[in-house]
Write a structure and sequence with these properties.
heterodimer, A: Ubiquitin-like (UB roll), five-stranded mixed beta sheet, 5 strands, B: mainly alpha, Ribonucleotide Reductase, subunit A, two-stranded parallel sheet, 6 strands, 58% helix, Phenol_hydroxylase_sf (chain A)
Chain lengths: 123, 521
């Protein structure tokens, strides 16, 4: 998926050529990506989690092997209620675009890309 | 009749100063000024007349070394006396030293960085006056690095968290915040350095950094650190004067400098302010005997002195207060709570300890922050129950980091204390995350610089930090047992009780014993 730039390249004031690559570009991670997982409205987790996950990881695997072990640290989280207990969305600045999570879909199928913020909140 | 030889004429202080500083300067004859000073054009700053620089202080090298030697003598006498009399036992509590661990890990190495860059300025500025001023500050900064390290070295014999401060400064996640701040400034041009460190850090924000640490030392029985603070105080006054002279000089030279300086002010105010989140939590959470709250310090040293004083003077030059200052003013009510909550949750990967505030401490916080602390108190109450049930809130993974300030993204929207701010920009097809409008603004103006950020979490995931597991990373950090985690039951805590004859009450305490942690201290 191609992301459209939100900013243009500003003028650079430097003594010589100055154009160094990102230290966290997608290519560095191969078939994986970094995904931010953010429980909106729950300050128990002081910040969103940053996970390295395969783009092709099925949603149910992500839920069982990545999401639940991390969030079980909150004594009020009940994994047995499943992912249906939350509304899921893609957070972009202050906007939320709904994400329809479902078993069998990969993270890439859900539209999640490198360093995207997958938000969720209690229904 | 013999005539006594005429006594040599004694120069006035002013003439002597000129003779030993500016008068030693010369015009180059066999190279051009641009060849001799290649770094003072590319930033776009225009200087018409370097001689217009008003020397902010009139010290010569011999006078400078004499004063500094006298101060050093006094400081080292105190250090010796404190060490010989086991002065560390008269601190308020071993937990006080968490503030000093943060100081030596985060600040002392940056004193050395400041020394490096002022040495560069002492070579590369065109004018003899500013070059000499930079030379004096360069010497101050290395003296500060040395005296801070010597001052705090005594504690390394008895307490965790001091042994590898330089190694950790280069590697540990929370220390990438002060490290990246200074390295951003080091990698800028000489004029931006003057505004970033010389003015924004040393003038605008310095009282918010040094006064809390040194007053904290004074209130908590740390005589050596307090003496170091006094020893550095006259230097800091000179640094403030230099910072103010630097900005006025740039603004007076050419009006085309004004927008460049304004952008640097906007940028470095916010970079410095974000760094001070570490000081905010230190003041409100790490000092057993409180000095003042972060909110009080911010109101006194920033709002009153800078917003109501300095920026009214700078308006004459067409300079307005920094962008996003309104957000900083809003955050004075809650930034310390959020910063400590970050450190508490990731305390297992830190070289200092944290703990749940006691009931008395929470009462003080409520008095200081009647409108906001009750919200955070609910979190601490939940954590107390968690501890009673055998838990201790250590996050089981890694956090999202801000691309610019590098702090875990725990700062909230101004209108909702439970919703962390999420900002992102996309540049050349790649997404970048930010904790605030202030950090996003900086990135959007310099994406090629900030996309190179060495973000600790991303580096861990790339396999560059010792290995894939938490123990691998902690070993790479050179964290030793007792350095971090929960304070209650820690090595420092157990030793403190033993040294004060309270060992019986500490019986059965194991490091990180969460059940004990719930009893308060």
């Amino acid at each position: 998926m191609t992301l459209h730039d939100t900013i243009s390249a500003p003028a650079i004031h430097a003594l010589g050529d100055y154009n160094h690559p990102s230290r966290s570009a997608k290519e560095i991670y191969g078939d994986d990506m970094l995904l931010m997982v953010w429980w909106k409205g729950n300050p128990w987790f002081v910040a969103a989690a940053c996970c390295r996950v395969p783009e092709a990881m099925p949603w149910e695997t992500f839920w069982a092997e990545v999401f639940v072990p991390y969030h079980e640290e909150d004594p009020d989280f009940d994994a047995s209620k499943g992912w249906e207990q939350f509304d899921w969305f893609l957070a972009v600045n202050r906007t939320e675009a709904p994400v329809e999570v479902a078993a069998g879909k990969s993270l890439a199928d859900l539209g999640l890309t490198h360093k995207a913020v997958l938000g969720f909140k209690n229904k | 009749m013999t005539i006594a030889p005429k006594a040599p004429r004694k120069l006035s202080m002013k003439d002597r100063y000129s003779a030993l500083t500016r008068d030693l300067d010369w015009e180059p004859s066999y190279v051009s000024p641009d060849e001799l000073f290649p770094q003072t054009k590319f930033e776009g700053i225009i200087i018409h007349d370097w001689s217009k620089w008003e020397d902010p202080f009139r010290l010569t090298v011999d006078a400078y070394t004499k004063y500094q030697a006298e101060k050093d003598k006094r400081l080292y006498a105190v250090l010796d006396g404190f060490a010989q009399s086991q002065g560390h036992l008269s601190l308020t509590d071993a937990s006080y030293l968490n503030a000093m661990k943060l100081f030596i890990q985060g600040i002392a190495p940056n004193e050395y960085n400041a020394h490096r860059n002022f040495a560069m300025l002492a070579r590369h500025l065109n004018g003899g006056g500013p070059r000499f001023a930079a030379l004096c500050q360069c010497l101050d900064e290395i003296r500060h690095a040395q005296t801070e390290i010597h001052t705090l070295a005594n504690y390394n014999k008895y307490y965790g968290g001091f042994h590898s401060f330089l190694h950790q400064h280069e590697r540990v996640w929370y220390l990438s915040v002060p490290k990246s701040f200074f390295e951003d400034a080091l990698s800028a041009g000489p004029f931006e350095w003057l505004i970033s460190i010389g003015f924004s850090f040393e003038y605008l924000l310095t009282n918010l950094l040094f006064v809390p640490f040194m007053s904290g030392a004074s209130f908590n029985g740390d005589l050596p650190t307090m003496t170091f603070g006094f020893s550095a105080q006259s230097d800091e006054s000179r640094h403030m004067t230099l910072g103010l002279e630097a900005i006025k000089f740039l603004l007076e030279q050419d009006e085309r400098n004004v927008p460049i300086v304004q952008y640097w002010l906007d940028k470095w105010f916010w970079r410095g302010y974000r760094l001070l989140a570490l000081v905010a939590q230190m003041l409100d959470y790490m000092l057993p005997r409180k000095v003042m709250s972060w909110k009080e310090a911010f109101e006194l040293y920033f709002e009153e002195q800078m917003m109501n004083g300095l920026f009214q003077d700078l308006a004459y030059y067409g300079i307005r207060p920094p962008l996003h200052v309104d957000k900083a003013i809003q955050e004075k009510e809650y930034v310390s709570h959020q910063a400590y909550w970050i450190l508490y949750q990731f305390g297992h990967a830190a070289a200092f300890t944290t703990s749940v505030p006691t009931d008395e401490h929470m009462k003080w916080l409520e008095e200081q922050y009647p409108n906001t602390f009750p919200t955070y108190k609910t979190l601490w109450e939940k954590e107390k129950k968690n501890i009673e049930n055998g838990g201790r809130h250590f996050i089981r993974g890694l956090p999202q980091l801000c691309q610019v300030c590098q702090i875990p993204m725990g700062f909230t929207e101004a209108d909702d204390p439970f919703v962390q701010a999420q900002r992102e920009s996309i540049f050349e097809g790649e997404r970048y995350n930010f904790c605030s409008d202030g950090c996003q603004y900086i990135f959007d103006h310099e994406p090629v610089k900030y996309r190179q950020a060495w973000l600790p979490v991303h580096q861990i995931y790339q396999g560059n930090c010792g290995g894939p597991t938490l123990p691998d990373v902690l070993e790479w950090y050179n964290l030793k047992p007792g350095d971090g985690g929960e304070y209650l039951g820690s090595m420092d805590h157990q030793n403190w009780l033993k040294w004060h004859g309270e060992a019986d009450s500490a019986e059965g305490i194991d490091e990180g014993d969460a059940a004990y942690a719930g009893k308060g201290h």
